[in-house]
Amino acid sequence: MFEARNGVLHIEDVDFREIVRATGTPVYVTSRMLLEENIQTYRTHFGWARLLYAVKANNNLALMRIFARAGFGADVFSAGELYLALLAGFDRNYVLFNGNSKSDEEIEFGVRTGVRFSVDSIDELYTISEIASSLGRTVRIAFRVNPDISPETHPKIATGLRTSKFGIPSEEIFEAYRLALELPAVEPVGVHCHIGSQITDTSPFVEELEKMFEIAKRLEEMGVSLEFLDMGGGFGIDYEGDGRAEVGRFASALRPIYERGVAELKSRPELWIEPGRSLVANTTVLITKVNSVKRAYKNFVAVDAGFNLLLRPAMYDAYHRVAVANKFGLEGEEVYTVVGPICESGDVLAKDRKLPRVEKGDYIVVFDAGAYGFAMSSQYNGRPRCAEVLVDGSSFRVIREKEGFGDLISKQVIPEDLL
Ligand code: LLP
């Protein structure tokens, strides 16, 4: 879907320069065809499970609507994400409200919408029970269990370690369910877990699901009837290769565990998964313009997007493939480091990459930017956020307008005495 035609990057059938003419740079560009392809891949391999889209990866409403229409549920991590998910049209029966630190206001909002909750602590359980009782509602909940699993990934995105802030330790989880059975207005119907993100090995997921079934068995003995086991997201993609996730490999590792496990349970819970990255990362590129090329101790290519728009390299030392969009497919000639416009030396998008000769006015394309790209952007250094575009065949639409200076001041107030 990202092809070179006469040395120029095309997204589906659109010449990237047409998009740049319409929106300027930087700009995030998504291929609808790739998105639909990813959805189809999940349907093919995980047709036996329920799919929830992890909204945190990319909360653009147009993309969310495609997932909602395809029958996905949604994993949301804040009242704001819940609001967006409902607006996008996700079926609220399959929206799971996650979060390790929900405010009372967020809980009240969630209870009113009727979605299910993943409960991260006993404190939260009491709060939900109180708020739901006062509103005359019953909330279906799962507890998030901390499974004490150490997957191979960046430490900042491993979430199921004993020492991580998420979930209730497995030793204490039964006490939590016992309490939930006693309290009014909460009905425990599921178990939730998430071990981390960008995990490419299948074995930590297998270990996780096995642990979840052990827990589920004991829960049934306690009288909990389970509707779902949600094992979270985290399937990693190939950032160094084609940006795809080997969804089939994860599915075939997990299916036998699920089938064996569920056969031993009376309530036959569904398996829920919450992928984010593996659905959206490879669908989207960030196109950024070269402001200057500097030959110093290193060859620096300074572009107009930095960690304000794509935080992953600075935050996790993440690798994203880059290329020169207007010399696409040409042989690499020189080694360059692509840096952004932010006032910190950590603002490096790509280190030591062999690229065709780069000059001022060229365009750099950063691949696999659809997950945790725009979603983690900021206005740091007084930079308005850029536009987002959705390509569909030979046409494209702006799906988020770029910000202007007005957006930098829209919520600021100068007190009278400072005027
Ligand atoms: N479910 C829960 C409860 C999660 O916390 C997450 C991600 C997901 C699902 C989706 O995981 P995925 O399939 O996308 O791996 N900003 C980081 C990633 C943070 C992931 C946090 N949780 C990055 O750019 O690598």
UniProtKB/TrEMBL annotation:
<dbReference type="Pfam" id="PF02784">
    <property type="entry name" value="Orn_Arg_deC_N"/>
</dbReference>
<feature type="binding site">
    <location>
        <position position="316"/>
    </location>
    <ligand>
        <name>substrate</name>
    </ligand>
</feature>
<dbReference type="InterPro" id="IPR022644">
    <property type="entry name" value="De-COase2_N"/>
</dbReference>
<feature type="binding site">
    <location>
        <position position="372"/>
    </location>
    <ligand>
        <name>pyridoxal 5'-phosphate</name>
    </ligand>
</feature>
<feature type="modified residue" description="N6-(pyridoxal phosphate)lysine">
    <location>
        <position position="56"/>
    </location>
</feature>
<keyword id="KW-0457">Lysine biosynthesis</keyword>
<feature type="binding site">
    <location>
        <position position="234"/>
    </location>
    <ligand>
        <name>pyridoxal 5'-phosphate</name>
    </ligand>
</feature>
<protein>
    <recommendedName>
        <fullName>Diaminopimelate decarboxylase</fullName>
        <ecNumber>4.1.1.20</ecNumber>
    </recommendedName>
</protein>
<comment type="pathway">
    <text>Amino-acid biosynthesis; L-lysine biosynthesis via DAP pathway; L-lysine from DL-2,6-diaminopimelate: step 1/1.</text>
</comment>
<dbReference type="InterPro" id="IPR022657">
    <property type="entry name" value="De-COase2_CS"/>
</dbReference>
<feature type="binding site">
    <location>
        <position position="372"/>
    </location>
    <ligand>
        <name>substrate</name>
    </ligand>
</feature>
<dbReference type="InterPro" id="IPR029066">
    <property type="entry name" value="PLP-binding_barrel"/>
</dbReference>
<feature type="binding site">
    <location>
        <position position="344"/>
    </location>
    <ligand>
        <name>substrate</name>
    </ligand>
</feature>
<keyword id="KW-0663">Pyridoxal phosphate</keyword>
<feature type="binding site">
    <location>
        <position position="312"/>
    </location>
    <ligand>
        <name>substrate</name>
    </ligand>
</feature>
<comment type="subunit">
    <text>Homodimer.</text>
</comment>
<keyword id="KW-0028">Amino-acid biosynthesis</keyword>
<comment type="function">
    <text>Specifically catalyzes the decarboxylation of meso-diaminopimelate (meso-DAP) to L-lysine.</text>
</comment>
<feature type="active site" description="Proton donor">
    <location>
        <position position="343"/>
    </location>
</feature>
<feature type="binding site">
    <location>
        <begin position="274"/>
        <end position="277"/>
    </location>
    <ligand>
        <name>pyridoxal 5'-phosphate</name>
    </ligand>
</feature>
<dbReference type="GO" id="GO:0008836">
    <property type="term" value="F:diaminopimelate decarboxylase activity"/>
</dbReference>
<dbReference type="InterPro" id="IPR009006">
    <property type="entry name" value="Ala_racemase/Decarboxylase_C"/>
</dbReference>
<dbReference type="InterPro" id="IPR002986">
    <property type="entry name" value="DAP_deCOOHase_LysA"/>
</dbReference>
<feature type="domain" description="Orn/DAP/Arg decarboxylase 2 N-terminal">
    <location>
        <begin position="35"/>
        <end position="281"/>
    </location>
</feature>
<keyword id="KW-0210">Decarboxylase</keyword>
<feature type="binding site">
    <location>
        <position position="277"/>
    </location>
    <ligand>
        <name>substrate</name>
    </ligand>
</feature>
<comment type="similarity">
    <text>Belongs to the Orn/Lys/Arg decarboxylase class-II family. LysA subfamily.</text>
</comment>
<dbReference type="GO" id="GO:0030170">
    <property type="term" value="F:pyridoxal phosphate binding"/>
</dbReference>
<keyword id="KW-0456">Lyase</keyword>
<dbReference type="GO" id="GO:0009089">
    <property type="term" value="P:lysine biosynthetic process via diaminopimelate"/>
</dbReference>
<dbReference type="InterPro" id="IPR000183">
    <property type="entry name" value="Orn/DAP/Arg_de-COase"/>
</dbReference>
